[in-house]
Amino acid sequence: MGRKPRVEYAGALYHVIQRGNNREYIFDKDEDKTFLLKDIKDRKVGTGFKLYGYVIMDNHYHLVLQVEDEPLSKLMHLINSSYGRYYNREHNRTGHVYDGRYKVIPIQNERYLMAVLRYVHRNPVRAGICSQVNKYSWSSDEYYRNNRGNFIDIDLLLGMLSNDREKAIKQYISFMEQEDTIDYEQMDVIGDRSFMITINPPKKEPVKKSLDEILVDTGVCPADFTLIKNGSRKRNLVPYKVAYAEEAVKQKYTFKSIGENINVSATAISKLLNGVE
To answer: Are residues 153 and 90 in the same domain?
Structure first.
């Protein structure tokens, strides 16, 4: 049976893992890691995806990203094909560079996003390459610690920690020193299944219009708009007032605020909605 396609949508957040064929070292030289990073930077400029984190190990890499119009599958194909050609050329070899299709785990909330970033940045620590996250050169950790947002989109995650950037960075550093909470074994199982992502696009909260905008949307003319705002009780204005009040209630405004905006009481709004003049 063939692999099920991954369902993707614009704005989705993903944790991507790509390993070398047979887990062989395919990024064992600094030049190799530099090539991959440069290619990712170039793709980012060309396609506009957001990159929240990465780490490049000797035999695999991790990306934490958010796609826009360019599907993840196309983006990963471009990145992996480019590096595959480079690696085979530089090492005078042919054949597969990667161990099958990349693994991808959907990130469904902000709390998990922070945990994934820590998992990614602590990869070298878990592997015994270094004792601290900031001792490894080939990850996005330095961008967060040094408040550098030119390549890595640091604002979202640091903003989750604090609106004060200095405090946010301190909290980030403290968070990176804590042990991971992600179930790594389950993560590998999900990836090996070549699973189908079936997340629904996040629902956008409707924009709440101002009360004046709601009143204008009733179709009232400028002169009558002014009369209504001044509390006029002319009979011909009633349909506009009713339409205004009904829509304002739908948008969760209180009777008091609806009335104050047109210079009448909350009780008057209640009567208006109940057909009492």
So the answer is: yes
